[in-house]
Specification:
2 copies of one chain form a homodimer.
Chain A: H1 20-48, H2 51-58, H3 62-68, H4 72-84, H5 100-117, H6 119-130, H7 138-160, H8 169-185, H9 187-193, H10 201-219
Helix pairs in contact in A: 1-2, 1-4, 1-6, 2-3, 5-8, 5-10, 8-9, 8-10
Chain B binds a DNA duplex (18 and 18 nucleotides) through residues 9, 11, 22, 25-26, 29, 50-52, 60-64, 66-67, 70-72.
Chain lengths: 224, 224
Amino acid sequence: MAMAEVAEPAERKPRGRREPNEERIRARNQRLILKAAIEVFSKKGFDGTPISEIAEKSGLPKANVYYYFESKEAIYRAVIAHLIQGWDDALTHIRPEADPRTALEGYVRAKLEYTRKNASESRLFASEIIRGAEYLTRADRQHMKDVTDKAVAIVDGWVAAGQLKQVNARHLFIMLWSATQFYGDFEPLAADALLVKRLTSRHYEDAARTIVDTVLGGILAASA
Amino acid sequence: MAMAEVAEPAERKPRGRREPNEERIRARNQRLILKAAIEVFSKKGFDGTPISEIAEKSGLPKANVYYYFESKEAIYRAVIAHLIQGWDDALTHIRPEADPRTALEGYVRAKLEYTRKNASESRLFASEIIRGAEYLTRADRQHMKDVTDKAVAIVDGWVAAGQLKQVNARHLFIMLWSATQFYGDFEPLAADALLVKRLTSRHYEDAARTIVDTVLGGILAASA
DNA sequence: GTCTATAGACAGATAGAC
DNA sequence: GTCTATCTGTCTATAGAC
């Protein structure tokens, strides 16, 4: 998906295969550019990001950025496409045969972990949604919907089986998503609320416990 | 606070009081500018917002915007200062003498209502935090901390009195803040998750019920 | 594949006529 | 208090030497 956005070099050996070395340089430089782009876009948004800053951060001259990507928008789209792939990972903890407590706790912890280790990516994604999600493709959104639907069906199954109290699974996932997201995306606020300068792994641990205890305490059926 | 940021007109009657009419025009135009600024800033962020667009949206020529505010940053700071005032309102529901269920439910509903009716403001605030909160003054942040501290102390009191189970009040408020905020700031995602094109008051009602039932179910002491 | 130089559009901000 | 014209700088993007 990301590949469609990448500019082709204007001049290339006709019909011949590219040198493996060329490919490696391409891959490396594209990675450098995307990594730098995530940082800058997440801090300044799409309109506020100058390509020159992406170039500087990636150690390449500005013109080279244009050699690898045909426009600023192409870089942005490639970044978005890349980070959508991280969306599902945490949700794999939600499996029908799993015990609800274990599954939901696994999801919350995985989500917190992801947000902590990929803070810039996470903020960029949040930024994109706040601005109205205009660069998310229909396919991206459909994918996220499908993944959500599957998780919702599993929770509904647990409710039907009497393992969980009656709960609106869609709103439940919104709660879990937003709570976990908060610690990474809104770190300055979270740090203020917790009376510290910066969040440490201990705060993430406390967050996980509070979310899991509170939510599970509210929906776990008494018999479970 | 906002006033400190506003440019003084270069030429003014020396020593004389200003005409009431002058004042009215000033107030009206400043209001128009701030209102337009909230909309544009929330969509494009600080760096991505052109003053020309604020001018257009407020119906004034660009030079007039500079007549009332000395810089783009001054407008942004004035907007931030204004919306900080909305921060406390919902928290007034958390009073020590109130019943915990009533108080927390009141808070959640007020917060959802605010986010729904002031979506642009809310998104602008979220955007500012995501970018690292560099335009929030120390005083603004201290104010938010003080208000949070008060609410935390009240919840701790409820826990001590046996009205609530043991819970980390600071993380609890983060949960409530993030969950309620989500429906306004990340509306496209929430709508996708709820299988609709746009959120209506019914969805906000469902959200309130899910949040309150889940969280209160998790922390209300059995005897309460 | 790398990089300097620059075109062309548009930004924030100001001067000064009205 | 209003507004046109303009200065100055920076932006995206490209041309073309190496």
